[in-house]
Amino acid sequence: MLISDHHRMLFVHVQKTGGVSIDRMLRGHIDDLRSVASRHATLTRILKNEPELHSYWTFGFVRNPWTRMVSWWSMIEKWNKFNGPRSGKEHGDKKLNPFWVAADSYSDFEEFIMRGPEDFKRLRTPQIDYLTTPHRRADFIGRTESFNADIRAVLARLNLPLIEPEQHNVSKHGKHQGYYNDATRTRVGEIFAKDIELFGYEF
Predict the structure, then answer these.
(1) What residue ranges define each of the domains in the chain, with the CATH number in brackets?
(2) pLDDT tens digits, 78-127
């Protein structure tokens, strides 16, 4: 989540939708960026903390829910391989993110999908819930699937240079369909039914 008072802009960072790339891009061109609440705070929480942001131009991104969950799982596997408890690294007194540690305990992708949403609210919260309140909706909702075109629209709206977008933190997991069986496909479809209906996503 990022705020620019100069541009009267608010970016709501939904997990696994290209937010790291957007963060780095904006930091290169906006000097007064700041944040409030947590990195992935919902619009409701942000406006509760700072009601004056209600009039700011607000944007965020969404992603195909089935692809998003595969990307999330791939990131957890990568984190464990190089930095997690099973990586062999000495962590000493360093406090590891409890979500990453717990999520790494799932034996496979199926368990992550079937158990994870029960264990962690973030894994069962529809993306649209991050971008709306009972009285407000983000002014612009881009899609990871059309990231380049949509981020250019954001930059144009903010009168920022139309630089070539560069995506960071991209998981190299291939097509998402191969990760699913009937049960996990249905599970994700049920959890993110709001996103699927609103944005027309298909498996």
Answers:
(1) 2-199 (3.40.50)
(2) 877 776 666 666 666 667 677 777 777 888 999 999 999 999 999 999 99
Three-class SS of 161-180: CCCCCCCCCCCCCCCHHHHC
Q: How far apart are CA 56 and CA 24, in angstroms?
A: 20
> pLDDT digits over 120-161, tens only?
999 999 999 999 999 999 999 999 999 999 999 999 999 998
- Residue-by-residue DSSP string for 32-99: T-B--S-TT--HHHHHHH-GGGGGSEEEEEE--HHHHHHHHHHHHHHHHHHTSGGGT---TTPPPPHH
How much is the CA Rg of the chain, to the nearest whole Å? 18
Residues paired with residue 137 on neighbouring β-strands, in sequence order: 132
Could you report the per-residue pLDDT of 71-87, keeping only the tens digit for each? 999 988 887 777 666 66
Instruction: Give me 43's structure tokens.
Output: 């619009």
